[in-house]
Prior knowledge:
Residues 93-116, 173-198 are annotated as: Disordered. The protein is α/β, with parallel strands linked by helices.
Amino acid sequence: MTDTVADAPAARAASPVRSYNEWDPLEEVIVGAIDGVAVPPWHPAIEATVPPEAWEFYRRNGGGAFPQEQIEKAREELEGFVEILEGEGVTVRRPDPVDQSRPFGTPDWSSTGGSSHTFPRDIALVAGDRIVEATMGWRSYYFATHPFRTIFKDYFRRGARWVAAPKPELTDASYNPDYAAAKPDGPPDPDDPFPPEASVITEFEPLVDAGDFMRFGRDILVQRSHVTNRFGIEWMRRLLEGEFRVHEVTFVDDHPMHMNATFVPLRPGRVLINPERVRELPEMFAGWDVLVCPEPAIPADQPMYFCSRWIAMNTLMLDQERIFVEAQETELLRLLDKEGFTPIPVPFRTVNTFGGGFHCATLDVRRRGELEDYFTS
């Protein structure tokens, strides 16, 4: 007998997917996997987002493998994290295994392979009982949602809503190879840190990475970035209107990609900020307390393939008190403890090297709590 799709609306009332913010008690989560990871091929979209010191690595190794010892260490860290989550009573789901080194393409382009299925936060947004698959602006991420489809189909059969953003074409029309020439000289202008012409993606079609979104109950923040354009933001806004309010925000960052190393919710009324990128809070956060993230402990000479050292602030709330923090981030652990939180130190430094922290490596599909309005206007 084949599985049948559950009837709504009764099924939706008991949906396995139900998450409105980043801090209610965590009950079920998807955690990524590192096995099968591959180096994505060199492309302007890669150049615009990865650290410049990693460019030569991509040019030499695109389509190949990362160092095996780093993969094994990252696997060990992910499995240790899963063990801790399950020890706290959290249900953990994992993606299907995939060999990301297999080539693929469309009639317009080809790729030597994919990248990874380590960071489910990038590929889907959970808004209430709805899973929204992102489009993804990198060609190497074209099939990034597929390792998670077994889980998404199960959730849908059990009552969740599930929708995918329009599959992008990702032809040359989607990219601006001259983005770097349009970037103003000097530090970012606080009034216009990321002008549209300095983005590597155009407005040709909706492009969205879910990592550029952050949930605050009825209000969801999003930033325009090198992987999320205004076309994509408007698509998401229309999809969610009536249930959620989507607000575009801007930080002092001239190479934005994902918000969770810039502006991190801790609980109602408190946020953790990146001092280099957040000079002042968005107006709607007037009255909220700010914790300024200390300088990351990641050594300056540590290889970082996908992101900056500020990935250290990529934390995950188990509930409004307990928070997962990389075990070597001593100053951040001390700050959170001083501010009344209970930090849970977990080794995750090698996973950081591959481009993510605890928030990136998870997709919290169920938190115990209701939809709240945390803003009066």
